[in-house]
């Protein structure tokens, strides 16, 4: 009898684990996310200070996300940005993780990827922060605009980058 109970438990336990490990269908990345793939140079400013970053982007986690790796050429700043597309809600979910530490990686951002642009907003405690990435297919370049929401509802410049192939 004890043997039957053990075998029944193992069958139940293993069948539950096999079911839990089924891979969901990952939607194809929108064309604008695929356009980020490659090696890039970002030049621009952060609150008026001129900066240059190296950037590498491509699919990761079996294509569920586009991963962007950013490294400043003069300072120790670096970031990993994961942009995932959710077909069910036709939206993007963005995780921005950088060398400022774990505390600053919360919350995730949400937005959209349509046409030639990706726009997402992070709802920080100090106020919303919006990123807009716009692709120019004629020149194979990007414009990244990062803005902070102001109490009066307007958006204030935080950073702006011209992004070109390396």
CATH architecture group name: Beta Barrel
Residues in β-strands, percent: over 45%
* Alpha-beta classification: mainly beta
Strand order of the largest sheet: 1-2-3-4-5-6-7-8-9-10
The poorly predicted ranges are 3-15
Enter the CATH topology name.
Lipocalin
- Biggest sheet descriptor: 10 strands, antiparallel, barrel
CATH superfamily: Calycin beta-barrel core domain
Describe the protein in words:
It is a single chain. The chain is mainly beta and 166 residues long. The chain has a single domain, classed as Calycin beta-barrel core domain (Lipocalin, Beta Barrel), CATH 2.40.128. The protein has 2 helices and 10 strands. A 10-stranded antiparallel barrel has the order 1-2-3-4-5-6-7-8-9-10. Strand 2 and strand 3 form a beta hairpin. The protein is globular and about 45 Å long. It starts with a helix and ends with a strand. The N terminus is likely disordered.
């Amino acid at each position: 009898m004890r043997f039957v109970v053990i075998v029944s438990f193992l069958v139940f336990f293993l069948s539950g684990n096999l079911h839990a490990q089924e891979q969901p269908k990952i939607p194809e990345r929108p064309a604008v996310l695929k356009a980020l793939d490659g090696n890039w140079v970002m030049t621009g400013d952060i609150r008026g200070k001129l900066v240059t970053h190296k950037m590498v982007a491509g699919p990761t986690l079996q294509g569920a996300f586009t991963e962007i790796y950013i490294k400043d050429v003069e300072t120790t700043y670096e970031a990993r940005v994961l942009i995932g597309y959710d077909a069910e809600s036709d939206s993007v979910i963005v995780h921005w993780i950088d060398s400022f530490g774990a505390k600053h990686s919360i919350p995730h951002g949400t937005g959209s990827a349509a046409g030639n642009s990706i726009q997402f907003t992070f709802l920080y405690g100090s106020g919303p922060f919006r990123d807009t990435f716009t692709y120019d297919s004629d020149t194979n370049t990007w414009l990244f605009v990062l803005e902070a929401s102001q109490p009066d509802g307007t958006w204030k410049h935080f950073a702006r980058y011209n992004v070109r192939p390396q």
